[in-house]
Amino acid sequence: MYLVAIAWIYVALMMAVAEATHANGSVLGGVVTFLLYGLGPVALVMYLLGTPHRRAARRAAEAAAAQAQAAGPVAAAEAAGAEAVPVSAPQDPPATTPPPPSGP
What we know:
Strand content: under 5%
Mean pLDDT: 84
Order of helices and strands: HHHH
Helix content: 55-70%
Oligomer: single chain
Low-confidence stretches: none
């Protein structure tokens, strides 16, 4: 698939160069030729041919998220990329003792 796209771009580039270097041609005509005969159609075809792959990747990500959500909040946080932090009761600050009295 990529080989055909690269070949198409190459041919369109050669058409654009021929347009730009022709006696009656112009650089603007070469740029327009490359964009309309080369880059535009190739981008559209590659986008359309990549649709099934993007759809499958989206479904796989949704399935993984649903499976992680069903496993529990800690697993869902790990699946999202966060570290699992154990939930514990708040602790009281350590008790401080006053210093001993100094002097006579």
